[in-house]
Every structure is written in C-alpha cells, then in structure tokens.
Amino acid sequence: xxxxxxxxxxxxxxxxxxxxxxxxxxxxxxxxxxxSVNPSFSSLLGYEPDELIGVHVQVLNERPEVSVAxxxxxxxxxxxxxxxxxxxxxxxxxxTVWAKVSVSAHELAGEKPGSLLYLxxxxxxxxxxxxxLAEASLRMSEQMYRAITEHCTDIISKHxxxxxxxxVSPSVQTMLGYEQEELVGTSxxxxxxxxxxxxxxTAVDELESRTALKLPPYRMRNKEGDYIWLETHLRVxxxxxxxxREFVCVSRDITDRKNTENQLRKTNALLQxxxxxxxxxxxxxxxxxxxxxxxEWRHGLRFSTPxxxxxxxxxxxxxxNDNYGHHEGDICLKQVAEALKRAAKRPxxxxxxxxxxxxxxVLPITDERGAAYVAEQLRQEVELLQMPHPSSDVSSFVxxxxxxxxxxxxxxxxxxxxxxxxDRALYQAKQEGRNRSRAFGHG
Length: 443
What we know:
- The protein has 443 residues and is an alpha+beta fold.
- Helices cover 40% and strands 24% of the residues.
- The chain has 3 domains: 18-131, PAS domain (Beta-Lactamase, 2-Layer Sandwich); 152-258, 2-Layer Sandwich (Beta-Lactamase), CATH 3.30.450.20; 277-439, Alpha-Beta Plaits (2-Layer Sandwich), CATH 3.30.70.
- The protein is built from 14 helices and 16 strands.
- The strands form 3 sheets. Strands 6, 7, 8, 9, 10 and 11 form a 6-stranded antiparallel sheet that branches. Strands 2-1-5-4-3 form a 5-stranded antiparallel sheet.
- One of its GO terms (molecular function) is diguanylate cyclase activity.
- This is Diguanylate cyclase.
- Residues 305-442 form the GGDEF domain.
- It is an enzyme of class 2 (transferase).
C-alpha cells in the first residue's frame, strides 16, 4: 500500500469517527463559520444535518441580543477555554441547552503557517443541569419556607383531616402563648370557643368538594384561658406519605378588628336607639312610630290580623304649662309617659310621643275589645298620678282623653285611615267632657 493510499485510509477512518461520534463535534473556521458538523452536534441543537454549514457560531449564543463580537474581539475568545466548561447554548427553537463545551485549535496541513481550524466539542448535560437547578430551587424554596414560617407573625400550621396538629410555626408562642411542642399531636378542636364549634364543623365539611377555604372568623383559647379572634385561610394538600390528605392553615389575629367592629355595632345601636327615642319622655319618637306603624300595617295586611291605635291627649295641658311653667310641664309629660308604660306593657306594644302633649299607642294583633281595655287602663294610670291641675275644667288632677280604633288592614284602605278614625274618636271623647276613652263609631 502506498503512502497516499494509507493517508486516504486514515482520512476515511477519521471522517467515519467524526460522523459517528456520540459527542457533538464541529469544525469552525478562524472567522467563526461552521465548516463541518457531525450529526450528534446538529441533533443536540435541533438542526438537520449540514444545516449549520456556512453559519456563524453566533447562532449558538443563548442571548442573541448580545453579539459575540461585542463581548470579545473575536468569537474565539468567547468560546475557547483552557478546560471544558458548562455553557448555556440556544437551540434552533431558541430553547436553552446546557452543554460542556471545549474548543481546540488544529493547524491546517498544506496551508500557510498559522492557518488554524477549530474543533468544538459539545457534551449534552441538559438533564443533569436541570436536575441540579431543580434541586437548588427546592433548597431555596425550603430555605424561604423555613424563613417564612419562623419569622412570619401569622400562625402557619399543618393538620391531619381530623384536626390534629402536625406542625405549627414559632409565632404561635407570641400569638397564643403555647410552645410548638405543646400543640403538636393535640386537636385544634380542643381550643375552639364552644359557640364556634358548629360553625367550624360546617365550614370544614366544605373541604369534601374544595381544596381551599377561608374560614369565618372564630375564637381560639390561648394559654391563659382567654379567647382571641382569628381569621384563617386553609388549603388541602396531599399527605407526605401519599396516603390521604392534610391541610395547611395560615391564621391571623383579628381580635383588635373584631373589638372595633363590636364597638361600632354597639355605637350604631345606641345611635339608632337615640334617634328613635323622644329625648324628654324616653318613649319612642314620631319617626320611630312612623316606621313601626308601617311595619305593623304590612303585617296585618299579610296575615289579616287586627291592628289597633290609641291616641291620648293630656287634658288642658296648655293651662298646666301657663300655671306651673314649662319645667313643670316637662315633668308632667315624663310622669304621664311612665304611667303609659305601666298600662301598655306587652312586648309588641309601642308607646310614642306623637307631638306636644299627645301620645300614640300601637297595639298589634289587638281587636276592638282589647283596645278598649288598654285605653281604659291608660286613662286610669294617668289619673292615679294625682298630679295637681287646678286649671283643669274636668278634675283637680291631671287627666287624659283617649280615642281608639281597630282595623284589619286591606289593600283598599290607606294606612292613614286608622289614625284618622282614632283622631275622630279622641275628638268625641273631648266633646263628651274629657277624662274618658271612646272607640271610633261608638256613642
């Protein structure tokens, strides 16, 4: 075999080894152009065989907006390393490929001295690198989780589905006074306020069809035996042993907020009460009467039940004021109001100051006979006050005249009709000599 034949044979073997090599291999010219690329190299980067031939090595740059030329005076300095190095490359679709990269220079035989061809070799380490990155991310997540659970002011806890504490964050000591080990293994239900147990059971039942839940505010007992209000977000997770499920809770102390809400409710209730009470007599005012009367009219209309109204007027009250002065007149109104409370004492009855010396009494589900009885009781209670009234033409003491009326509300009657009839009955009582009660339509 001649030297030429032997040389051709070596070249053929080298070419065969290059094409069949498991590792990616490519020859690159001094100006960075791919001259020859083996199948492993093109396959690793998602290219068809020979698709990279004539293309600049810049195509491998994972950040195409940063050109190789801008990073280094030549492509070679960017990729040539003394030892193989892990690099992020970009495949044909722009996705990241991790590879161990090495570049070596080879002098071209038969060319002018210094003419070089560069061999780039790639070893695919994408899967290993992804596993490393995933592990690093997991470690970072664990560190972040530990930092959150150890320093978060909210309580983070994990429970079995039957409510046992499996884990609780250190913040439980600050919020509830318990050490972590005191709660682990105990049931969360042992710490709920008794009045909130059913509420919590109902909420937790929803976990059958949901994986996340915001629990309604509830009270939990701290180590000193007091109760604080908590707001909890709950999420169901798969148990660590892959059997069954567990749930994670993030609980926040809302005691201050609940106390503020309760105080606001009390304040609003007080304001509502103040706005519905006559400041002088302590009975309902005209506004409260209007609201109550409208409600009771609707009730009577719906259920066809009788509704009665009594109008009461203090006899010759203007003369009382003229004789004793307005201060004594106010005292008189207060005592009359107290007398009326003693006579109309059913929970549903309403006594209101209708205006000046006039009062109105609403008697729900009361027929004419019942209204007549209450009216007479009212009259007697006022008379029993024995408040001197020398200016009266009917008695030497304060007295009252009353008119009452009863209606079963219908859609054909306006609500005011009952008041009009009671007023006519009151007028009749005054015409007949005062200090008496009269029903509408009766002589």
